[in-house]
Amino acid sequence: MIVTTDAIVLKTMKYRDTSQIITLFSREHGKLSVVAKGIRNRQKTGAGGAEPMTCVRAVVYKKPGKDLHLMSQCDRLPVFKGLADDLKRMAGGMAAVELTNLSMPPEEPHEDVFELLSRTLESLGDATRSPENALYYYEMQLLGILGFRPELRSCVECGRSLARIAEDGLRHCCISTHGLICAGCEDRGFGGERVSLAALGALTGLQDARHPEAASRIILSAATRDEVGGALRLLVLHHLTGMKPLQSEQVFFTLG
Ligand SMILES: [Zn+2]
Predict the structure, then answer these.
(1) What whole-number distance in Å separates Cα of residue 55 and Cα of residue 120?
(2) CA 133 to centroid of ligand 1, rounded, Å
(3) What is the pLDDT confidence band of residue 48, given thresholds at 50, 70 and 90?
(4) Roughly how many angstroms between the first and final C-alpha of the chain, as a whole number?
(5) Would you tell me how many other CB atoms lie within 10 Å of the CB of residue 216?
(6) Which of 39, 41, 193, 212 has its CA 20 to 30 A from that of 243?
(7) Among 45, 117, 31, 76, residue whose Cα is nearest residue 21
(8) What's the pLDDT at 252?
(9) pLDDT of 86-132, one tens digit each?
(10) How big is the chain by its Cα radius of gyration, in Å?
(11) Which of 67-89 are b and which e, b meaning 16 or more Cβ less than 10 Å from the residue's Cβ?
C-alpha cells in the first residue's frame, strides 16, 4: 500500500553507504520506521533532507506485516523554523521528539499527540523566553493524553482539597506518580518529589494551559523551575519512558 502522509522526523540512523533508517511520527499512521534509499546522496546536494524535528510530506510503501517500510519520496514542509537558531530551543525540541519516540508504540495512530507535538515544536521555534515551559507543557499534556494525568487538586491519599491544604499555611507538598500528596500524608510515610506550593501552582497551570503559548506565559523562578522539572521527571520516567532518562533533556538542563 502506498501512502502519502505528513510526518515529524523523530530519529535518523545511517544505513549502508547512502541510505538512512528514519523513524517518522505520522499523523495518520503513528510511528513508522522507513528506509530512505540514497537519501544521504541527496542531502549532500542540499535536497531531500530528513532531520530530527523537521516535518516532511512522505510517500511510503507500507509492506503488510513488516515493521520496516520503504520511503520513496520526502519533501520538507516549511514549519518549525527557528528551532535550529538557538541551542536551548533545539535541545527542548530534541527532548520532545525523543520522548515521543520512547512513548509511542509503533504503527498506532495518535493524531492528538501529533497535533500536540506539532504545536509544541512550532511554539519552541518562536520561543523568546522560557523555552523550557514548552517542553514541560508537552510532557504534562502527553501524560494526560496517554491516561496518566496526575491528580493535582486534591491529595491522592486522603482526598483533602488543594484549597484546604493551602489554607493550613503549609509551604510544600509532594508529587507522587499519581499526583499530590499533602504534608500530613507525607508525615504518615507517603512521599514523592517535594515541591513548593508555587511549583504546584505552575504544574496545575501547565495542565490547564490550552496551548503552548499559554504555558510560555507562566513565569518560573530558577528554584521553582527545578521543582517543576523534578516532578515532571518523576512522572515521565515512571509512566512514559520505562524509567529511561531522556538524553537530550540532560543537554537541555546543562544549558541552564
Ligand atoms: Zn493527604
Answers:
(1) 13
(2) 28
(3) low
(4) 47
(5) 22
(6) 212
(7) 31
(8) 73
(9) 888 999 999 999 999 999 999 999 999 999 999 999 999 988 888 88
(10) 20
(11) eebebeebebeeebebbeebebb
Q: Ligand 1 centre from 160 Cα, in Å? A: 6
pLDDT at residue 130, as a whole number: 83
State the distance from the centre of ligand 1 to the C-alpha of 234, rounded, in angstroms.
19
Q: Which domains does the chain carry?
A: 1-79 (2.40.50.140), 80-256 (1.20.1440.120)
**Span from the CA of 158 to the centroid of ligand 1 (angstroms):** 4
Q: Please choose, from the candidates 135, 153, 154, the residue with its C-alpha nearest in 3D space to the C-alpha of residue 143.
A: 135
Q: What would the mean pLDDT of 46-67 be, rounded to a whole number?
A: 85
Work out the angle at residue 68's Cα, subtended by the Cα atoms of residues 62 and 70, and round it to the nearest 5 degrees: 50
Q: How far is CA 254 from CA 87, 147, 202, 247, in A?
A: 11, 30, 22, 11
Task: Tell me, in angstroms, the distance from the centre of ligand 1 to residue 180's CA.
Answer: 8
**Average pLDDT rounded to a whole number, residues 59-77:** 92
Q: Which three cell numbers stand for residue 195?
A: 515541591
Tens digit of each residue's pLDDT (9 = 90 or more) over 20-39: 999 999 999 999 999 998 87
